Amino acid sequence: MVDKKRQQIICTAFSNGKQHDFRLFKESKTRIHPAISILTDSGYQGLQKMHFKTHMPKKRSKKHPLTKEDKQNNRGLSSKRVLNENVIGKRKRFKILSDRYRNRRRRFSLRFNLIAGIYNLELMR
């Protein structure tokens, strides 16, 4: 999770092996205040049932193509979500996310949180 105003990493969650983002979010039991609005990608389908201030792009299907309004809304959401993608890209410079992690798994979360702390500290400067 990333704070939009300060561009800081707020919360991290991990799992062993490959796991879907929304499943990881549910298993982490992260609580979000109802007054906070969330911008997510389409991988978090179903989050709107848990948190009412969730904004995610509409998906098209074969039988229901997107209207021009839906496309404009999706483009607006993606332009707001660019910040999150930039933060993820900056973390990938440390190679812990972009390469296969070959060390002890129990230390992965510690190292990742240290990298998040270093990133947040760099923002303060």
Strand arrangement, largest sheet? 1-2
Shape verdict: globular
Distance between the termini: 21 Å
Mean pLDDT: 84
Outline the biggest β-sheet.
2 strands, parallel
- Give the SSE order as H and E letters: HEHEHH
Helix content range: 40-55%
Radius of gyration: 16 Å
User: Could you tell me the number of beta strands?
Assistant: 2
Report the total helices: 4
Number of domains: 1
Task: Enumerate the spans where pLDDT stays under 50 for 5 or more consecutive residues.
Answer: none
Strand content: under 5%
Explain what the structure shows:
There is one protein chain. This protein is mainly α and 125 residues long. The protein has one domain (21-124). It has helices spanning 21-28, 47-50, 68-91, 108-124, and strands at 38-39, 54-55. The chain has a two-stranded parallel ribbon. The longest helix is centred in the middle third of the chain and has 24 residues, at 68-91. The chain starts with 20 loop residues before the first helix and ends with a helix. The mean pLDDT is 84.
